[in-house]
């Protein structure tokens, strides 16, 4: 079997509507992305991007989404992402956009990027605090978090040219 090169596109769901978080699910994101690809690149683009395209990871609380696609077609995928305008769930449409944060060859490189990105966001939050009470609230919420690292048995940690 030939080596499959993949790209992982790390995105953030941005929405003014707080109800949007409720409908951030694999299926809704996948459909919205496919719809945008079809509108921008037509049937050919959709067929190219659909090969090995999947929503690999999703965190509705933080709005973080990790998309996987073939390396050959990641530019087609990325160029269509700004055209995602809404997510649909239970016949409700929620306006939103997908903001591309990082494109990587492995899930691990995307995780490392996300850690650095979140650190920078937290620093900005702390610097923008207007009083000591806000600062204490943010620090308290940080200290209440716990981080556990899990190894993926599915082989998704492969390098760019990992064989699957």
Give your account of this protein's structure.
The chain has 164 residues and is of the alpha+beta class. The protein has 2 domains: 1-105, Alpha-Beta Plaits (2-Layer Sandwich); 107-144. The protein has helices spanning 26-50, 74-80, 107-127, 132-143, and strands at 6-14, 54-59, 64-70, 86-89, 92-95, 97-104. The chain has a 4-stranded antiparallel sheet, with helices on both faces. Strands 4-5 form a two-stranded antiparallel sheet. A hairpin with a 2-residue loop joins strand 4 and strand 5. The protein starts with 5 loop residues before the first strand and ends in a 21-residue tail after the last helix. The model is unreliable at 150-164 (pLDDT under 50).
CATH superfamily of the largest domain: Ribonuclease P, Pop5 subunit
> What would you say the CATH architecture of the largest domain is?
2-Layer Sandwich
Query: Which structural class best describes the helix and strand composition?
Result: alpha+beta
Q: According to CATH, what is the class of the largest domain? A: Alpha Beta
- Kindly state the mean pLDDT as a whole number? 83
């Amino acid at each position: 079997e030939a080596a499959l090169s993949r790209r992982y596109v790390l995105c953030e769901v941005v929405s003014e509507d707080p109800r949007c978080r409720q409908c951030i699910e694999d299926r809704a994101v996948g459909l919205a992305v496919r719809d945008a690809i079809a509108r921008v690149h037509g049937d050919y683009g959709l067929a190219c991007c659909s090969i090995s395209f999947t929503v690999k990871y999703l965190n509705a609380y933080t709005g973080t989404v990790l998309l996987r696609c073939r390396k050959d077609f990641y530019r087609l995928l990325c160029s269509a992402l700004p055209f995602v305008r809404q997510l649909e769930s239970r016949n409700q449409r929620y306006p939103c956009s997908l903001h591309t944060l990082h494109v990587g060859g492995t899930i691990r490189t995307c995780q490392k990027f996300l850690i650095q990105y979140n650190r920078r966001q937290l620093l900005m939050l702390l610097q923008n605090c207007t009083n000591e009470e806000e600062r204490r609230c943010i620090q308290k919420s940080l200290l209440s978090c716990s981080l556990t690292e899990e190894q993926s048995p599915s082989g998704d940690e492969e390098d760019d040219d990992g064989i699957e």
